[in-house]
Amino acid sequence: MEQNKKRKIIYIIFSILIAAFVWFYVNYAEVVTISVNEIPVEFANEETTLADRGLMLLNADDAVVDLRLQVPRNLVFRFDTSKIRIVADLSSITAPGKQSLGYTIIYPSNITSRNVAVDSPSVRTISVEVGELSRKEVEVRCKVVGSVAEDYIAGTLQMLPAVLEVRGQQIDIMQVNYAQVTLNISDATSTIVELLDYDLYDFNDQIIKNKNIHPVSDQIQVTMPVMTVKEVPLVVDFVESPGMRLGSFDYSIEPQTITISGDAAAINAIDQIVLDTLNLSALSEEEHLSYDIVLPDGINNLSGITGAALAITSQNFQTLEVEATRFSYENLGASRSVSIVTSTLPVVLRGTAEEIAKVSAKDVYIIADLADVADASGSYTVPARVQVDKYDVGSVGTYEVTVHIGES
């Protein structure tokens, strides 16, 4: 009884193994026929080799292929037929007219061609018609919609390409007048750079819809600079010195301001345009100076004014000549001794009437600068500066004194 039970179990296991073997054999050996219809044909070397020969395809968009394929049943569930591609190479065509062209079937990456048999068509060719290719260059126009944000200005529009080449038969491309893109700049605060689709227009300004016209570029790159506008003052930096204070001058700059534009970051960093740095001590009682208005790179002068004028006059300056007798020196080397040979020096002082009236010769010091002869020996004429104690008075002109330097 026990032996019969064991024998029955062995028969059951053996039957299961046979059934599994038969199932796998059927699934791997059985072939299923599938149909894939209207697969569009892709054409290789149409825009290169064929176009270089002055030829073009006519009605290429209508080229499709129907396939009947035999595939093992076990592959059917992972065979994505939507990924089948049909590719025809045009490099062998050298003349216009009707042509018979072979094609290649490209299967999805997870399917190999040795596992698929083509049941139909038995001949893998398609018929195409080839015509002579004509070319035409047309203007690219831009329709601008909206306006930039307040206190901003739109710059010069740039398009790439600015001229569009269209290809096709002469009868088709001759009706094309221009291509047009539409750019929206509403409330823009920075430069706009966009790739835009375009439409082709005829000579009646009507959109052309003709699949036999083939533009070389699919999109147009449009650049619209958007700049900040700002009014800034023109200024001169004045350098004051004793007796020569800006408050004692009357001056005017014409024009006082100009309007500039440019990138927002660059414009925000500009608060004024400096025409010059001017030392007040070098001025006479009345001066009229002219300047070119120079702007940083990338900044535009919207005012169109390229020059400015400065008029400056002193209010109540007076001069006084004194005989200076007090001398000193500076910048002497540590191992040297010095004596001032010059004993008196005429000095012209300038300042307001109130300050000049207070000055006498004893308030004036002549300080020799020994920097250039600090380690020398002998007698030298050296530059000197004038110093007036207690009063806001400065000197006019340059001065020199004679010194003798020896070893200490």
Task: Tell me about this structure.
By secondary structure, the chain is mainly beta. It contains six helices and 31 strands. It has helices at residues 2-29, 46-52, 73-76, 170-173, 264-268, 353-356; strands at 31-44, 55-58, 64-72, 85-89, 97-106, 117-120, 125-132, 134-145, 152-154, 158-160, 163-168, 178-184, 192-196, 199-201, 214-215, 220-224, 226-239, 249-254, 257-262, 273-279, 286-292, 300-301, 307-314, 317-324, 326-330, 336-340, 345-352, 364-369, 378-388, 394-395, 399-407. The strands form seven sheets. A seven-stranded mixed beta sheet has the order 2-7-5-4-1-3-6. It has a five-stranded mixed beta sheet with strand order 14-12-8-11-15. Strand 28 and strand 29 form a beta hairpin. It is elongated. The model has no long low-confidence stretch (mean pLDDT 88).
